[in-house]
Amino acid sequence: MAARPRAIWIGTLIVLLVGAAFAPTFKADGIAATDFFLGSVDSVEGAEIQAAHFDAGSGSPTWIITSQQSAPAVLDATRGIDGVGEATILEKDGTPVVHEGRVAIQATLTDNAESLAAQDTVERIRDAVHPVPGADAQVGGTTAIDLDTRTTAIHDRNLIIPVVLLVVLAILMLLLRSIVAPVLLLATTVLSFATTVGVAALLFNGPFGFPGADPVVPLFAFVFLVALGIDYNIFLMTRVREESIRHGTRDGMIRGLTATGGVITSAGVVLAATFAALAVLPLLFLVQVAFLVAFGVLVDALIVRTLLVPALTLEIGRRIWWPSALARKDTEKPVPQEV
User: Where are the transmembrane segments (predicted)?
Assistant: First the structure.
């Protein structure tokens, strides 16, 4: 590695980028509750039988609460929506049930109430009934809860990931007293995660035949992999910095990798095996998280921390520590001369 760092980091980078190129194909927009199980269960079989003979959503109808005077308009708007099989005002003895001037409309969906198609129908219902004058309509029910949960999970995922990266970057800057090294380490961690997601997308969409993933699956995998990857980074680069002060960046990198490489590799293999054990459970969520974390840890420990980061550090040299004093003067420990 010390002789040809450029060839190593370029080759490693190309391999990782090829895997990362498939990351956008990872489907994490949510799945139906009936897809949570990998095996056959009674609840899923019952839902399939119900869908074959009745409106699939009849077991869990969608409810629309609206003002009494606007109920006819809301009812008409609901009945005209694609995906709604039947809609009626809740009645008792032939008379609408009114509570504090509001009535309930029960809408039976043609799709399974726990499916993504049913959630799309609920979105169309909301778009149709909310503009009705004076209705103040609220759409609820099992499907609406699933939709809101999915929407919140996607929002939280898009918010938490950047926040985590900024916090980690700040911690690395304080620890390594540098800007270049933390940015480089964070970039390699993100690349490692993207490669993991890309490879997972190829397998999940292809040989494994998974219908998709819950929105929190990539978030859980990201948190685990960033936490573990940054731990390995800190373990490696703090040792490299200590050695660089005494021996210079080039020798410091080699000495640091020699001292920590075996420990990082062993820890990565053990951790990957531990998470992989979750894959034996017949739940899609756990199988996906298990694969992502196990594979990601191996990529990080065996490739990124062992090849990419050391090779890039050797290529950049003492500038890796900019703007600290180590970047201005690569302090080499003088070799004592024999007398």
Answer: 159-176, 183-204, 216-236, 257-279, 285-308
Calculate the CA 186 to chain-centre distance: 17
Q: Residue 338: inside a domain, yes or no?
A: no
**Which regions of the chain does DSSP assign to beta strands (E)?**
62-67, 84-89, 91-92, 95-96, 102-109, 138-140
Is pLDDT larger for residue 165 or for residue 328? 165
For 158-217, the pLDDT digits (tens) are 899 899 999 999 999 998 888 999 999 999 999 999 999 999 999 999 898 888 888 889
With the CA atoms of 89, 95, 99 and 102 taken in that order, what torsion angle do they form, in degrees rounded to the nearest 10?
Answer: 40
Q: What is the pLDDT of residue 17?
A: 96
Same domain? 245 vs 127: no
**Chain-centre distance for alpha carbon 320:** 30
Say if residue 113 is in the same domain as residue 228: no
Instruction: Return d(Cα 12, Cα 191) in angstroms, integer.
Output: 11
For residue 216, the tally of other CB atoms under 10 A from its CB is 20
What type of residue is 309?
A: V
Whether residue 192 is found in the same domain as residue 322: yes
CB of 303 closer than 8 Å to CB of 12:
yes
> Tokens 């897809």 map to which residue?
35
Residue 159 sits in a domain whose CATH number is 1.20.1640.10
Top-confidence residue, 114 or 45: 114
